[in-house]
Design goal:
Helix content: 40-55%
Structural class: alpha+beta
Strand content: 15-25%
Largest sheet: 3 strands, antiparallel
Distance between the termini: 28 Å
Number of helices: 4
Strand order of the largest sheet: 1-2-3
Length: 102
């Protein structure tokens, strides 16, 4: 397996959202302590990742042979970059408790 790091594209959205949802809902201690469900995590990532991808702030480790995404890094400023997103009270609480949230 050969991995290359690339700037993510919007056609990778579903795979990236699935990876992030699994990682944070099943293995990330701060997120788990806030009791977010997988569905809430999935909806949250669907809100932020498209903008992060469009801004060129999402990187993916991709298997060169299969094209499968192995890992992802997303960057954003939840309140400055996404002012038009309607945050749920639970998301706002999570952002304030973790500072960077995800």
């Amino acid at each position: 397996m050969y991995i290359k790091i690339i700037t993510s594209t919007i056609d990778m959205l579903e795979e990236i959202v699935a990876i992030q949802t699994a990682a944070f809902s099943e293995r990330e201690p701060m997120t788990m302590s806030l009791n977010f469900t997988k569905e809430e995590m999935y909806d949250y990532f669907l809100k932020i990742i498209p903008e992060s991808i469009n801004a060129g702030l999402t990187m993916a480790a991709v298997d060169e042979d299969t094209g499968a995404v192995a890992a992802v890094v997303i960057c954003f400023d939840a309140f400055a970059v996404f002012p038009n997103i309607e945050w749920t009270p639970k998301e706002i609480d999570g952002i304030s408790k973790t500072n960077i949230f995800f």
